[in-house]
Amino acid sequence: MSKSCKGLAMELVKCLSESDCVKVENRSFRECAGEKSPTISSECVGLRETYFNCKRGQVDMRARIRGNKGY
């Protein structure tokens, strides 16, 4: 279960590395992922929300019994 969000994390990093926030502004991935900036595409925002829900599902006891919905 600890690896169920790994695919989402890798896609999020890939998406953020191609965004203007990292390329042009030379900011870290954490800074770019943590804010709602127009330099981040809507695809990256969607991936961030999905990754957040995946990580939250790992903590939820109901999801731990059923298993996290993996990517």
From TrEMBL:
GO biological process: mitochondrial respiratory chain complex IV assembly
Keyword Disulfide bond: yes
Superkingdom of the source species: Eukaryota
Record InterPro entries: Cyt_c_oxidase_assmbl_Pet191
Record keywords: Disulfide bond
One cellular component (GO) term of this entry: mitochondrion
Record has Disulfide bond as a keyword: yes
Matching Pfam families: Pet191_N
Entry similarity comment: Belongs to the PET191 family.
UniProt-recorded name of the protein: Cytochrome c oxidase assembly factor 5
